[in-house]
Predict the 3D structure of the following.
Amino acid sequence: MKTILVTGGAGYIGSAMVHELIAEKYRVVVLDDLSMGHRRLVPKQAEFFKGDLKNITDCRQIFKKYKITAVMHFAASALVGESVAKPLLYYQNNTAACVNLLNAMQEARVHQFIFSSTCATYGEPKTIPMPESHPQDPTNPYGRSKLMIEWMLRDLAKISNFSYIALRYFNAAGAHSSGLTGEIHEPEAHLIPNILKAVRNPKRKLVIFGGDFDTPDGTCMRDYVHIQDITHAHFLALKALGRGVKNEVFNLGLGRGISNLEILKMAEKVTGKKIGYKIGARRPGDPSRLVADNSKAKKILGWTPKRGLEEIIRSAWEWELSL
Ligand SMILES: NC(=O)c1ccc[n+]([C@@H]2O[C@H](COP(=O)([O-])OP(=O)(O)OC[C@H]3O[C@@H](n4cnc5c(N)ncnc54)[C@H](O)[C@@H]3O)[C@@H](O)[C@H]2O)c1
C-alpha cells in the first residue's frame, strides 16, 4: 500500500486531499503544526503527526517512523497581506521550512514530490490567459517565497533522482462534497467565504476592493478552481510521476476570468438572498485580471476541471451553513 505524506493536511485544501486519499485506499500521514489548520478536518483513518516543518527533527521523525512513498506539500503561510507586513515569516515558514522537508526526504531516499504552488508566482500578467511559460515576477513576499521553492525543486531534480510536479493553483474555492471539510480561515482573506459570511450575518461589512479596473463591470477578475478539481489533479500528478512525467509545472484554473460582481450575483442566486456590499479602494498590487491557461494540464495530465462557479459557490454555501 502506498503511503503519502500530506503536509498541511489539517488545512483547507490539504484536508480535502486527505479525505480523497483515504477514500482511494492510500495510507496517509498528515504533518501539520495546526497554526492555521484544524485537527477535526483530518479523518480518523489518517495518521496525524503534530509537527512543525521549521523544525528539521520533526521532518526527520516522520520519515523514520513511516515508509513514505511520496510527499504532497500543502503546508504554508498563504496570506498575501501578511507576507508584505512580515516577509521573513514567509521566507522562513515557506521557503526555509521546505528546505528542511527536502533535506529529510533526501536522507530518507523519498523522491516523489507534489508541490502546491500558486498563480501568485507570476505577478502582473503580460498576457491573458497566462501559460506556465509566462514570466515569473511576483509582486509580494508570499509569491516570492513559493517561487523560490519552484527554483529549489528544479535545482534538486538536476542533481538527484528527485522528481516533482508543481501545481500552480489559481483561486481555490468550494467545499468537499462529503460535507466533512471546507474553508475555515481566521482571518478569512478569500472573497467567496466572506460573501457567504455576510449573507449569514448582514452586520458583517462586505467590501469589494476596487470598482475601476479595466474589466467589463469594473471589478477585478480572477480564475477559480474547486478544491476537488485540485485534489483530482494531485492524483493525476501522482500517476504522471509514476509513468515518468516529472519536473513539470501545471496551472490549475477554470481558464476563465470571473469578476467579483459575477461571484456576488452567483452567491445571490445560490443563497436566494440579496447581498449588500460597498466598493472600497483597490488593494496595492492587485492586477485587474488573472486567468489560467490550463491547456498544459489538460494535455499532459488529462485534467479537466469539472465544477464550475455555481457548484463552487453551492458547495461553499452548504459548508458555511454547517459551521
Ligand atoms: N487557498 C488558495 O486559494 C490557494 C491558491 C494557490 C495556492 N495555495 C497553496 O495551497 C496550499 C494550501 O492552502 P490552504 O488554503 O489550504 O491553506 P491553509 O492555511 O488552510 O493550510 C495550510 C496548512 O499548513 C499548516 N502549516 C503552516 N505552516 C506549517 C508548518 N511550518 N509546519 C506544519 N504545518 C504548517 C497550517 O496549520 C494549515 O493547516 C498552500 O501551500 C498555499 O500556498 C492556496
Remarks:
- Residues 3-173+223-252 form a domain with the Rossmann fold fold (CATH 3.40.50.720).
- DSSP finds ten helices and 13 strands in the chain.
- The first strand starts at residue 3 and ends at 7.
- The two ends are 35 Å apart (CA to CA).
